[in-house]
Amino acid sequence: MRTVATAAAIGLLMGLAATPAAAQEQCPRGTLDSRFCDRDGDLVADTPTDARQLVDPRTLIFAYTPVEDPAVYRRVWAEFLDHLAKVTGRQVQFFPVQSNAAQIEAMRAGRLHVAGFNTGSVPLAVNCAGFVPFAMMASRDGSYGYNMEIIVHRDSPIQRVEDLKGRHVAFSAPTSNSGYKYPSWLLREKFGLQEGRDYRVSFSGRHDNSVTGVANRDYDAAPIANSVMFRMFERNVVPRDAIRSIYKSDAFPTTAYGTAHNLTPALQAQIRDAFFSFNWEGTALLAEFGKNTPPAETFIPITYKQHWAVIRDVDTASGVSYTCR
């Protein structure tokens, strides 16, 4: 009897020890937070299979990436949000977020359902908040993207990247691809300039703050997303001739639009349909984002696995972790 009991106990312990491995096999997740599964290998969180984990809100909360004045973009997005409300049969509320971190935390906490996350924030939003991107703005011919430019005041003695040594450089936010992650890697790896050692660093909070700060000579230089800068020129926020560029990168993908992973499948499908069925003609959205180069005139389908590969590569090379806090 003692032998049988001992064997049973050992078997129980072995079963418990095997549980984590078995659970991982049933719920593969890669770099995703432990709350999510990725059974299809697309690198984003699966929609929960347990109906109790799904949410079906009467009011959808939408947030656009906090790169510029939220008051301006509440108006810009108004017609699209009316369309989203009509397609889904829900009320839709614009949520003006003040930082990338606040936007990610809002989705992670279940307070944000539909969002546009800036390029650099997308991997963290995917891995920590369960963001599922599916759309991006593009021109009618499918062209898309923006460039990171390092800008200085027109009268600055700085002529090339190497001249930033000993200068004051303003990054936008730590999660921004063009505002911090890519340019800090570029300065370190390609030009031998280490932040804090070779140049002084500030964080302006947003790309528009960086552009305005350079125009007003608050900073010697700043890396920015040029699509933001061009829209500011068009709105006469800063004079075009106040800025000079000393470096321009290859093109990056732009803001990604998507949903929280745990919305009901039917609601997720309706939201996708709203993006791809929206008529841009004559709207404030076209008036604003049509100023981009190339112009943004429609939404095109994207996948995180394909379109954000270059961003993940930069993160890997820079030692960035998607660990959730």
TrEMBL record:
Biological processes, Gene Ontology terms: transmembrane transport
Residues in the signal sequence: 1-23
UniProt cross-references to InterPro entries, sorted A to Z: PhnD (IPR005770), Solute-binding_3/MltF_N (IPR001638)
Positions of the Solute-binding protein family 3/N-terminal domain: 59-292
GO cellular component: ATP-binding cassette (ABC) transporter complex
Protein family (similarity comment): Belongs to the phosphate/phosphite/phosphonate binding protein family.
Protein name: Phosphate/phosphite/phosphonate ABC transporter substrate-binding protein
Naturally occurring in which organism (per UniProt): Elioraea tepida
